[in-house]
Structures are given as C-alpha cells and as structure tokens.
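Input.
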Amino acid sequence: MLQHLKILHLLLYFLVPVIMVAGCTSTTVMTTPTPTPSTMAPTSTLIPLQWTFDTDPVGELPQGATVFSGNWLVRAESDAPSTPNTLCQIETAIFPAMTLSDTVFTDVIVSTHFKPISGSIDRAAGIIFRVQDENNYYILRANALENNVDIRKYVDGIRITLKITSIEVLTGQWQELRVEVVGSQIQGFLNNELVVETSDDTFQSGKIGLWTKADSVTCFDDVEARTPL
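Output.
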C-alpha cells in the first residue's frame, strides 16, 4: 500500500508542467529563479578522482558520499565493468541524487558506466555537476524509457531543460555516459559519441555526483572526474 501511494505521488508530481527551453516542443513562460551566488572555492587537483566501489563495504555508501535523496548502496553485480561492486539506487523517490565527494571543480570531465535495470515511471541515469546543493546543479541525463539524452539545470529546485536529443538508451546493459564542461560550454556523450551540447553560465563551479529519477533502479560503476588538459 505504501509503495502504491509513493507511485501515485510521483505520477501526480510529474504531471506538473516543466519549464522547457531550448530543444523542447513547448515553452512555459515563467521567470527563471536566480540562484544564490556560490561561495565554493574550486579544489586544485591534477590527479583524476576515481570510484570503482570495489573496496567499499557492500550495503553501505562509498566513503565521502553525501545523499540528497533516494536509497544508494554498494552492491555486487556479476557483470560489472570492474568487478565485483557497483553503486546502485534502488528506492522510489522524486529525484534520487548524491554527491561523491567535497571536491569542487570549475572545468571538469566526468564519466561513468551505468546500467538502467528497471522502472515503470522512469528508467534514468545521470551525472550531476557544478553542484551547489540538492536544489542547484546541472545534470546530464540518459533515459532508457524515453530513449533520449538531455542537459538540464535545477535552480532552486526547479528543473529547466537546456537541450535534448533522441537516441537509443538500452535497458539491462552497461553503457558509458560522459560530460565535458569548459567555461559555459557543456557537452554530453553516450558511448563516446557526442549527442548533446549547449552553453549556460548559471553555475561556474561545484561538486559532482550521480542522479536517477522516480522509480528507476540504476547501477553505476567506474566513475571518474578530472580537470580537462
């Protein structure tokens, strides 16, 4: 019964109109919220940060992670790109999201392997970047139910689509998602193919993390964040 109520709540939530800008079929005219200026100081790092989750305890969070929402845990997957462990989001929530560390990047390249496993409302995987807090960040998202990849931003919790493209995203198979951010330019790659790009200067720096949506059960492996050369 509780699960049914959660699904009903999510269905009602996602019927609310979404602000859509470039790349959408319709536009809702609203005043875009102005985010609070970031006080984050970029962390100087030339060594890529990597998360394979293979040394993290199964059933727990990786060290340094901060969960905004959802149920994230390390679990073994027999087909993981780097065995044995992955990081999975397994619980229904509106926008399950987390950061992986307190490291702050300005320009950054973030990549991850991901496997959408199930979800009837959504079946999504995302990289969040230039994260200010749980309500302010950019995201590169791949959706296996809708077969698309898009770049969005969340400003004071309001989601705004910047660019979207239609492309096949597979269920039950490992794929690679990568975002490259330099200045205001944002490029999104699926399996090493550039599929979506845009520009936006709302956020200049921030943390990085992972994201899913609604009832998506999605696993991630081999996350890497590095400063572009």
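The first strand starts at residue 19 and ends at 20.
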